[in-house]
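Try it yourself: sequence plus flavin-adenine dinucleotide, in.
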Amino acid sequence: MNIPVDNKIRIAGGGIAGLSTAIYLQSKNNPTVVYEKELKIGQSRHGDFEGLENWIFNDRIHSSFKNIGFDFNKIQSTPISSFYVHTTHQNPLHVKSKIPFFFLVSRGSKSIDLDHQLFLQCKKAGVEFRFGSKTPSTCDVIATGTRKASAYIQGINFNTDLKNQVHLLLGKKFAPKGYAYLIIQNGHGTIASAFKKTKNTQERFLENCIEYFKSKNINFSEAKKFSSRGSFSLPFGQMNLPILVGEAGGFQDYLFGF
Ligand SMILES: Cc1cc2nc3c(=O)[nH]c(=O)nc-3n(C[C@H](O)[C@H](O)[C@H](O)COP(=O)(O)OP(=O)(O)OC[C@H]3O[C@@H](n4cnc5c(N)ncnc54)[C@H](O)[C@@H]3O)c2cc1C
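Structure, out:
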């Protein structure tokens, strides 16, 4: 890696990719500084749930995180070994496994959120942060997230008195070329639709999902909307510096976050 004059590795972007890279580099005795354009870590997320897939790691998720220097036990995570798959034309399918499919984590700047815990562990390891400042053009690692949006996510977070449960919803009415989901954990819920670009911008995929779940007696209150976007374009051929990590490099979960 191209270590700059001040002997610190510079990472642009303090999302989960930038923070994980920083923890790893710092744990290998490489002084690292993260430049984050926002004033706080986790500001681009809204406390919504996300699934960290168990199957993408060679080892169990806890030991894989340990290998990069991150203590997974510090975050609030829930193993999910069972969920329901819904389509427009079949009865819901119950999918189960002895080994968890994924671990649910919440994303944002609250103390239990993955982003905040990654930040705390970076600080503990000695990573430096520059918030709200202009990122130098000479960064060694680019972790600034989505470059060109090819997928969109619209969702709501809400409160509910329903028991913990996870549902996946498939079909172009709900999420063309993508997936939608309902996740309820400890009184908090997320309904979201993650879909590819569509010509018909008038489509109301999120609303269709909400109506569907309401018809299944899923009641909720204090719903707050959020939206985001993602990219799935691997920069083949770009092997030189700066190194692109996370979504800046087109790395995303290709099917769905479960
Ligand atoms: C609603 C939603 C649900 C999702 N669900 C799942 C799931 O269940 N499972 C899964 O695996 N993935 C899921 N994803 C995808 C996953 O969240 C992203 O792929 C991942 O968060 C990307 O992390 P990142 O660090 O690469 O980018 P980001 O999280 O986008 O972080 C980029 C950071 O860089 C900062 N930044 C941007 N430009 C600059 C700049 N010029 N200088 C300095 N800083 C800058 C931004 O402020 C931000 O903090 C979901 C995404 C969304 C939006």
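One thing you can check immediately is this: The chain has two domains: 9-78+105-147+232-249, 151-230.
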